[in-house]
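pasting CMS1 protein for the record, 178 residues
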Amino acid sequence: KKISDVLQKSAPKPGVPADLQNLLSQHFGGNRSVIEIEELKLSDSCFLPANDLTHSFSSYLKEICPKWAKLRRSHKEKKSVVMLVLCSSALRSLELIKSMTAFKGDCRVIKLFAKHIKIKEQMNMLEKGMFHIGVGTPGRVKALVEQDALCLNSTKYMILDWNWRDQKLRRMMDIPEV
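structre below
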């Protein structure tokens, strides 16, 4: 059986905070102490409501970030973003960047994925410029954070493109590398 066959038969269900908590526990459970695992737990108040698919991406962002204009104006740090959007692929990242035009206005968006963009180029861009929104893949974001090219201290929103399925019907969290 292929994973796509299994996923095709299962109805897509919206992600909930408990899904992310379970993934964190499974991933870190074997090599962390009880206290460290407890520190990884996020309260439900840390999570915003998921897009119930009645919204476009831009209208969803407007709903969950009503004070975006103020946040955007007050952001002055280089090597950081106010909003980080994580997607399963570079193509999906581009799709989301195009669909957020009504929301982003004149703020700057940086593409954080590996397809046709070298990591050194992204590091230079983050160092020299100021960006409000970063959209990319977990692998590239992890690499940038590990090399101290991306600082997450001023990140207020992290959006997971949780429920979108690729042509193989996999969600971002179904991919083992993630």
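The first helix runs from residue 3 to 9.
The mean pLDDT is 85.
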